[in-house]
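subagent[fold] <- orchestrator: predict structure for attached chain, return tokens only, no commentary.
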Amino acid sequence: MFNRIHHAAIICSDYQKSKEFYVDILGLKIISETYRSERKSYKLDLLVGEKDQIELFSFPGAPERLSYPEGRGLRHLAFEVSNIEATKIKLEQRGIKVERVRIDEQTGKKFTFFQDPDELPLELYEL
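subagent[fold] -> orchestrator:
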């Protein structure tokens, strides 16, 4: 029935700060950027890898994300990486705090977490 997940949508509090984070720090490529004046909202389509996408939205007055304890809904977004240690070092060199690398007890794979400017949990998962 489904082929794959086409995109994940993220609502940010500071569009320019989040755009800089996802484009300049994480290195995602811009597919398109649209300002929707009727909503006073930006929509930034970003390419992850060769075909996956993130839609970054800004909406004035959007409520903060629930966390710690976590609320219902999407828990986090995970990025597949080839070398988790090298990716962790790159992010830390760009001023991003990254948790220690752990091993997934079920799969034996390495993973860790960091956060975007709105404290959305982002995961690195090594395959």
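orchestrator: received. Logging for downstream: Helices lie at 15-25, 84-93. The radius of gyration is 15 Å.
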